[in-house]
Structure formats: structure tokens, C-alpha cells
Design goal:
The protein is an alpha/beta fold and about 325 residues long. The chain has a single domain (about 15-20, about 30-310), classed as Histone deacetylase domain (Arginase, Chain A, 3-Layer(aba) Sandwich). The protein has helices at about 35-45, 70-80, 85-90, 95-120, 145-155, 175-180, 215-235, 260-275, 290-310, and strands spanning about 15, 55, 120-125, 160-165, 185-190, 205-210, 235-240, 280-285. It has an eight-stranded parallel beta sheet with strand order 2-1-3-8-7-4-5-6, sandwiched between helices. The protein binds zinc ion. Zinc ion binds near residues 168, 169 and 170.
């Protein structure tokens, strides 16, 4: 009689975290920096992940940043010599710790993409800096992690085609701009049409939603696009930005998804891709709730869904 295979003996889906994901900010700042550490702790406390699943990026991305960003911008940001106007556009006050954190988060997304290729599914506990352009940052985004990871996988020959699924409530303008002339990366952004950024860049597919869109309508529209896109693009990997700012309680969102709606969305995206054999690298994207622990719970819905999907499809 064959010995039954125990799930617990298999390595579970990789989750990427580094203690440097949290850098000090002035306490009055509206960016919820603590959420990364609290998310990691919540995932462990609720046994969504165990310590063995946690991976830390140890590589500096400095050799990878020039795949996307100009040398002038990289040097100025890393050395704290950006001009004040460019610094204000980012919206986060510069400190050496924040510069280090910024690089570490990019490394985290690169590692997430590499592990997703190996294991079929991997989730960062940060990332999604889609408003960053080659030579400037904006909207809390400094270096574009998806763009760096995508170019890295393409230039090392590990993939030929990537699909970016950006469901953060804000349009992925920086990513759309970076890949405007690169057909190997298909950019799809579904966002609130009247939200930031005011001047949007054309993604390969943009789906702007009306203010106040609720769960069922949102998931119906997503379901109209995602399966066809996979069929059309046939990516070697999907990069998924699971921003939770479409939530009804988000301060910057303007859409009206509930926690249940967000969880259904994560299940829909991950099962649609994974059931057809497409690996998915996930980042948490934006989220700006009034209550920090409610926000952290919202972000954890991605990892909870990933855990279910990973087991369901026995990756
Ligand atoms: Zn956002």
C-alpha cells in the first residue's frame, strides 16, 4: 500500500518579508508604514504562514535598478540629493533608512517573482510601487518594483512574456509608461476612473470603474477581462498588484468593496491563473484605512486566499 503524502511535509507557498520593510516616519505622516511588520505578525499569529515559509531578500537591487531607472535618479534618491520638488512629489520624507527600505522592497519583489516561477505562487508583504517612473517618483512610489522584476526576468531569459494585473484602486501609470513600447510585458489596470493620478498613461488595457462600484459589479467586470487576457497574452508569469484601496473604508479609494469582496477578488484572480498553470507573483499594493489593524487584516486576505489556492491545486 502506498504511503499517503502528507501536505504538511511539503513546503508551503513562499511569503517574502524583511525587517527593513519598516522605516521610521514622522508619527503624523499619513502613510501607514507599520502595516508591513503587523501584516507579517498577523499571518504568523493566525497560522496562515509558518516561520519556514518566510523568505528574506538579501540581495541589493542596485545592479538591477538601472534596468528601469536612470542613473541620475537612482544616485540622487539614494544619496538624498533629489531636489525638493521631486522629493515632495514622492510624498515621503527622505531618510537613509527609507532609502534602504525602498531598495529592500524592490529586492523583495524580485525574490517574489523568482520564487513564484519556482513554486507557482509567491506573495510579498510589501510592493506595488506602480506610480514610479524611470526618472522620478510619485504617490509614495520611488522605484517601480514590478518593472525592475519584469526586466530582470526578461533579460536573464527566464521568461518571454509577462502579464501585469494591477487591481490597486489607482491607475498603474508608471508601469504603463515604462512598458509602453515593450510588447513582452502586457499591462492591465482596473482602477477608479476619477482617482489619482489625474493624468493617466495608457496601459495595454485600462478598465476605469465608476466611483462607488460594489463587490458583485467589480467581480463581474474582472471576470469579463481576466480569462480572455490570459488566453490572449499566454504569459510565463502573472504579476498581481492586490492593492486593498478599492475597499469601502479606504481613505483614498472611492470604490466600495467589502472584506468579503476583496477575498473573493483574490480567490478569483489566483484560482483563474493557477488552475491554468500560470505562476503568480503577488504584491500587496496600496491601502489607507482609518484603523490600522483592519487595514492589515484586509491585506492579509491575499495571503489567506493564496494559502487556500496553493493547497487546492497542490502546487
Ligand atoms: Zn493605490
Amino acid at each position: 500500500m502506498a504511503t499517503p503524502v502528507r501536505f504538511s511535509s511539503r513546503p508551503d507557498f513562499p511569503v517574502i518579508y524583511h525587517r527593513e520593510y519598516v522605516a521610521p516616519l514622522p508619527s503624523s505622516h499619513r502613510f501607514p508604514m507599520d502595516k508591513f511588520r503587523l501584516l507579517r505578525n498577523l499571518l504568523v499569529k493566525d497560522q496562515v504562514v509558518n516561520e519556514d515559509q518566510l523568505h528574506s531578500p538579501d540581495q541589493s537591487p542596485h545592479e538591477l535598478l538601472p534596468l528601469v531607472h536612470t542613473a541620475e535618479y537612482i544616485d540622487a534618491y539614494c544619496n538624498g540629493t533629489l531636489d525638493p520638488k521631486a522629493q515632495r512629489r514622492i510624498g515621503l520624507p527622505w531618510t537613509p533608512e527609507l532609502a534602504q527600505r525602498t531598495c529592500r522592497a524592490v529586492s523583495g519583489t524580485v525574490l517574489t517573482a523568482e520564487l513564484a516561477l519556482e513554486r507557482g505562487l509567491a506573495c510579498n508583504t510589501a510592493g506595488g510601487t506602480h506610480h514610479a517612473y524611470p526618472d522620478f517618483g510619485s504617490g509614495f512610489c520611488i522605484f517601480n518594483d514590478f518593472a525592475v522584476a519584469a526586466r530582470h526576468l526578461l533579460t536573464t531569459g527566464r521568461v518571454q512574456q509577462i502579464l501585469i494585473v494591477d487591481l490597486d484602486v489607482h491607475q498603474g501609470d508608471g508601469t504603463a509608461f515604462i512598458f509602453r513600447d515593450q510588447p513582452e510585458v502586457f499591462t492591465f489596470s482596473m482602477h477608479c476612473g476619477i482617482n489619482f493620478p489625474l493624468r493617466k498613461k495608457d496601459s495595454d488595457l485600462d478598465v476605469p470603474l465608476d466611483e462607488g462600484t460594489e463587490d458583485d459589479e467589480y467581480l463581474r467586470i474582472l471576470g469579463e477581462h481576466l480569462p480572455g487576457l490570459l488566453e490572449q497574452v499566454k504569459p510565463d508569469i502573472v504579476f498581481y498588484n492586490a492593492g486593498v484601496d478599492p475597499h469601502v473604508g479606504d481613505r483614498l479609494g472611492k470604490l466600495a468593496l467589502t472584506d468579503t469582496g476583496i477575498f473573493r477578488r483574490e480567490m478569483q484572480v489566483l484560482s483563474t491563473c493557477v488552475s491554468q498553470g500560470y505562476p503568480v507573483a503577488c504584491v500587496i499594493g496600496g491601502g489607507y484605512g482609518e484603523d490600522l489593524m483592519e487595514l492589515v487584516h484586509r491585506h492579509s486576505l491575499l495571503h489567506r486566499a493564496a494559502s487556500d489556492v496553493f493547497r487546492q491545486y497542490q502546487l
